[in-house]
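Blackboard transcription, Thursday session:
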Amino acid sequence: MASRQLAKLDRAHKDAGLHAIAARLRAARARVFEANEQDLARGRAQGLGVALLDRLTMGPQQLEATARAVEHVASLEDPVASRGPARTLPSGLRVYRQRLPLGVIGMVYESRPNVTVDAAALCLKAGNAVLLRGGREAAATNHVLGELLREGARDAGLPEQAVQLIAPGSREEIKELVQLVGLLDLCIPRGGEGLIRFVNEHARVPVISHYKGVCHLYVDEGADVDMARALVLNGKVQRPGVCNALECLLVHAADAPRLLPPLAAALLEAGVELRGCEASRALVPALRAAAPEDYGAEYLDLVLAVKLVEDLDAALDHVERYGSGHSEVICTRDWARAQRWVREVDASCVLVNASSRFNDGGELGLGAEIGISTSKLHAYGPMGLESLTAEKWVVEGDGQVRG
Amino acid sequence: MASRQLAKLDRAHKDAGLHAIAARLRAARARVFEANEQDLARGRAQGLGVALLDRLTMGPQQLEATARAVEHVASLEDPVASRGPARTLPSGLRVYRQRLPLGVIGMVYESRPNVTVDAAALCLKAGNAVLLRGGREAAATNHVLGELLREGARDAGLPEQAVQLIAPGSREEIKELVQLVGLLDLCIPRGGEGLIRFVNEHARVPVISHYKGVCHLYVDEGADVDMARALVLNGKVQRPGVCNALECLLVHAADAPRLLPPLAAALLEAGVELRGCEASRALVPALRAAAPEDYGAEYLDLVLAVKLVEDLDAALDHVERYGSGHSEVICTRDWARAQRWVREVDASCVLVNASSRFNDGGELGLGAEIGISTSKLHAYGPMGLESLTAEKWVVEGDGQVRG
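(Written on the board underneath:)
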């Protein structure tokens, strides 16, 4: 099996495969652009929005960035066979944990075709085979990218079956994929609510979901207004279409007369539509009225829900109820409340006085990421190369037996 | 919810709950023994074997050991809120990972009633609520133990719903349990093949299986005969009914004339029935003929399959095909082959010149274990307190935003 061959490969062979893939991508630019034009034309004909078409685009700039990302993965440490600290037990046994590949990873995703290449590069580097099932809207582009991945792998003598693309048809074949017990070791769905639900409902193999980000910023009593303004603007405006963007602003009610007006003014000026609770609208009449479904909504757009909350406990309750376990920020000057936020919020990344946008594998020092897990087991938050491996125990002795 | 209350508790409160549980167990000994007598009487009437009745027994000795195990868990470090090393990024952000409870853990198991108490103690210490569904054969004992767990929790002011017992009826309620998406964060099935399969087939929540151990010892060319004999005897004879006992002996074919006869003699003298391949029977006629199904069998008894293999590659192939990812041992003098074994065998514990019986949380220094995971994700091998938690990212700043 390809996965067992891959597991045995040393770093040099895997990196050679990655460089060959990058070379193939650059050499076959024209084929990629042509296929991408087909996808874009179909998308336009079907009335896809600007944001979706933008994500679908694989032009010269995106292709070069994608090839460079593959080379960057090649430059990262090989996680396979890396060892944790060894302990010597009283019996003289030497015990440590050593990383091994997971085996075969199924990646089910939507829209952006660079994910096809990114995911394949990371899986290969971690010694895994990968099955890629992208979205229908990018079918032509992904088809060409899949060919180039296989050609690159072959150029470097890696098993060609290490990367396999599944042409998107109906959801039935996703169902079949996620029930391949014994063949598939992990499924990573990355996309919208419908896709994630579908995979989790039908999967019989382990799943690590990359689900939506309903991220909150709680501005605490006594918070620095300038800092809060910087955090809310960066979280909402810098790149509203990504999962670590802010979707809801919570403000301490007693301090809201000081805090909310300047924050709202800055957001409105930046073109953000604000949808607030009654108490917030009493302070800033320019806010629209929030509907119940605005809390918990992932807008991915220049829209922000606003709510005044009684205190830290009420903020924690709100986040527990409406958050999606992604990124949750407190802006505070109070040490004890910061500590409670860190301890009590259950999210893949909990931030104190820092933008939610930092919940990202590159920003947090992982080198690269296959996405951001909102599943708690195995990997919670950005998944780098290590998260694409498992850890086994190793015991070395000189004949020890148990008494 | 009980799980959120539990997640916030500090160590002192949780330990007080564990001590209260131990006190309740000792104070209500008579109730436990009486209930256990009912289970044993029913078991005898249903013709359960000696080994099963033995596992079902909760007499004075087992009860005291169980109470002590709870006190031992209280003595262990609290994994919740423990932090990994912090890094300071160029932006000045301080980044680290902090442990948090998983939430609600469902434990589905068979036979031994001490698992009811052990699992509850470990889950509570790690800040999780637990749903316990034991086997029918131990229903009366588990019912009383469940009451005592709740009473102990109440004595110490912990939420009573933190420990809930599900009375065993049909498998239907296991099916319902493992589909409680949003309520159950993890299911740990621990038991025989039928149970594990059933849970994995129906689960919609994450599952970490504690599956069978089909463990091999490969005796390499040139191995020390005395060491090999000690390892095979300890692995097979010391406690044949446990999952880290040996089930199959692989011997390097070219060196088998030197190695196999003394190993076989020692095993036969210890009362082990040996079932070998043709080549092994040519060397030791006392071996019975192995049937194809002997390879991959988990005997849990004084029976051992034997096979001669051409070389290390053939041993690795055999283990890959028939092993269950539990514990795999090589006995060798050769450094390079030991390294290949460590790197290439995919099992929760890979051992060089040490008994398979060391794959155990206590032996490997975890303090206590909820079992041995044969699932690769999140925890592979003995699961201690840390494995009952997740890790979130924490980012501390002084107003940093992303550029």
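Lecturer's comment: Chain A touches chain B through 71 residues (CB under 8 Å).
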